[in-house]
Every structure is written in C-alpha cells, then in structure tokens.
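FW: tagging you since you asked about this chain on Friday. Here's the raw sequence from the shared folder, copied in full. Didn't touch anything.
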Amino acid sequence: MTTTTAVSPRALRWARRRQSFTRSWNAYRSQRTGMIGLVLLGIIVILALSAPILIDESALSVTQATGERMAPPSAGYPLGTDEVGRSILALTLWGARLSLLIGLTATVVAIVVGTTVGVTAGHVGGWYGWVALRISDWFMVLPSLVVAIALLAVLGRSMSTTILVIAMVSWSGTTRLVRAQTLTVQSRPYLERAKALGAGHWHQMTKHILPNVLPLVLASATLLVPSAILMESSLAWLGLGDPNVVSWGSILNRASSNGAVSAHAWWYLLPPGLAILVVVLAFMMCGRALEAVFNPRLRGERG
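HL: got it, structure written out here
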C-alpha cells in the first residue's frame, strides 16, 4: 500500500513562493545591466557599512584635522583635503552612510504610504477612491524640489525632517501605479470566488491584492531610491540639510561655499559627485532590470 503525506496549505504557499522567487531570480540574472547594477550597489553598501572600520570617525572632526587646506591628492590623502584639512576620502565614505540611509528610509516611507493608499483607493473606490486619486494627482503636479524647500524651511533642518519631506513629495507615483494594478487584480476570477465565499475587504486586500502588486512595488522602489538620494543631495547642496552630519550633498555645499571652484580644487567636488552618479546609475540599472522581469511586455528584452 502506498501512503500519501498531506501537505498543509501554509507549506504549499511557501513552496510556490520559493518557486516564484527562483523564476524571478533566474530572469533577473539574464539581465546583464541589472547584474552590473547589483554588483555596484553591493560594493557601495559594503564600503558604507565598513566606514567605521576603515576610517575612524575622528577624521570627520574639524578640530582634529591634520591636513593642509584644500591640498591635492597625495599618499597620505588619496582624494585630497577640504578647507580645514579633513580627508575627502573619509568624508565621502562616511557621507555614503547618511545619503543611503536617508534615501532608503524615505523610499520605504513613501512606498508604504503609496501602496496603502493605492490598494485601498483601488479596492474600496467610491468617494474615498476619488479623493485619494485627486490628492495624489495634486502631489504629482507640484514641483517636488520647490515643495521640499518650502517644507524644510518651515519644519527645520534635521535628518528626520528631510526623510519626512522627501517621502511626502514621492509617494504619489506609487499610489497611481498600485491603484492601476489593484483594479486589474480585482477583475480576476479568484478574487470573485473569494468574494462569493464571504471574504472581507481586509482579507481580499492582504491575501489576494497585495501579493500581486508587490513585484511592481519592488520595481518602483528601486527607481524611487535614486530620486530620493538626488533630492537629499540637492537639498543639502542648497544648505537645507542637517548641518551636524556629513552627506554627499553637504560635502558639495561646503565645497561650493568655500571656493573650491575658484581654487580649482577638483578633488573636493569630484568624489561626492561621482559617488552620487554611480549610486543613482546602479539603482536605475537594477530598477530597469526588475521592471523587465515583472512586466510581461518587457520580459523578452535583455539588458
């Protein structure tokens, strides 16, 4: 006699998720530009996390600086020094931690808000869906940088307010995307069956709609992170960042305000500028690859 082992619904769900992840990873690996972006991001994140090990935090202190003013690259200072003699290499490595932290945190907040509003607006509809859509449209047409400058001028300069402001001007695009996908999912037969079996709104949104919109949310998040990093760098360069911390944008602000351009101190401007460029490019490459994986119309493309 043969015996059959019953498989629990939970185990079956996890098995399907593992299979789906494996298929998605195999499809992502076929995207050459996506893999290049992933490697670049891995290197940048490792360097940012290793900053306290590679360079002591005391190197950021103005009072403990030992180099000459705006000295060019040398053996002791591979990327030169700033206006008080601090190492540009130390500033760039430590600045990576804050720039990435603000960009990632602001993106998470924007994605959570945008996904929540998008799913509920698409599923519930009615006057709530109409109001939510109009508010998101209003935020989309506003000039993000101008609004962020105005909000920071009112709320004050700090890391937490910078994250909040960037998230406030970034959530609307995710809302539009998630709402459109929610409306598509709602027309599928399995959701109709769930309604017929008595599933409530919470069950429908969390068990059926949300898992189907998460891939697009992930792809959207990888494209939103570089925008958040650029926004933070722009605000810091304009002098609206937290003056007590070091980020790539604040380095550029100090360089421009202390005459690095007129002094031809290219080593003061180039490292943080290139760091921003590489991070934004890496996230864009990963985002485009994920978009090609999760978007059926783009699956045939190869990066």
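FW: The chain is about 70% helix and 0% strand.
HL: agreed, and The chain has a mean pLDDT of 84.
FW: great, closing this out.
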